[in-house]
Amino acid sequence: MPSLAKIFAYSFGASVFYQCYHFIGTIVYCEGISMEPTVRDGDYMLVERISVYLRRIKKGDIIIARQYCEHDNCNFVLKRVQAIEGDSVNYISPKLRKPVTTYIPKDHVWIEGDNKEHSLDSRTYGSIPYDELEYRVFLRLWPVTSFGWVDKVFK
């Protein structure tokens, strides 16, 4: 029978791991081409939640957001924040195929993929509530040849 100290140590370790994963961040595998060339299909990225919790997401940040959830099964998108609450955005509406100007409401952000031709983003579904943001991407881990900080500005 395990000792009380061992049970406590395992419980404490599991709790620390959960807290780090839930509140600090994790590693994510990226699929798709909507953020190329900044983030490529197959990249592994280090992401953090502290900026989201503290509401310190800025224009230019790359974020992961919940797109929609059905029966606790969520789809996520990885996009760049182009505008924050109070900003106005000019864009070509994919639905109307003409220029449109929209205002970003309180507690919302406007997100777009860097690869505009292959991205479903706020130009299609509008601004998203800040509460849908999950992570801020900040470091590419893989491939090793591309290891480094993620650019805040798409070039």
UniProtKB/TrEMBL annotation:
Keyword Glycosyltransferase: no
Pfam families assigned to the protein according to its UniProt record, in alphabetical order: Peptidase_S26
One example GO MF annotation: serine-type endopeptidase activity
Gene3D superfamilies referenced in this protein's UniProt entry, alphabetically: Umud Fragment, subunit A
SUPFAM superfamilies registered for this protein in UniProt: LexA/Signal peptidase
GO cellular component: mitochondrial inner membrane peptidase complex
Domain Peptidase S26: 18-92, 102-142
InterPro entries (alphabetical): LexA/Signal_pep-like_sf, Mito_IMP1_subunit, Pept_S26A_signal_pept_1, Pept_S26A_signal_pept_1_CS, Peptidase_S26
GO annotation, biological process: protein processing involved in protein targeting to mitochondrion; signal peptide processing
Main location: mitochondrion
Active site: 34, 79
Keyword NAD found: no
Localization per Swiss-Prot or TrEMBL: Mitochondrion inner membrane
Source organism, top-level taxon: Eukaryota
Keywords tagged on the record: Hydrolase, Membrane, Mitochondrion, Mitochondrion inner membrane
Subunit and interaction comment: Heterodimer of 2 subunits, IMMPL1 and IMMPL2.
PANTHER family linked: MITOCHONDRIAL INNER MEMBRANE PROTEASE SUBUNIT 1 (PTHR12383:SF16), PROTEASE FAMILY S26 MITOCHONDRIAL INNER MEMBRANE PROTEASE-RELATED (PTHR12383)
Membership in a protein family: Belongs to the peptidase S26 family. IMP1 subfamily.
Name of this chain's protein: IMP2-like protein
Organism: Hymenolepis diminuta (Rat tapeworm)
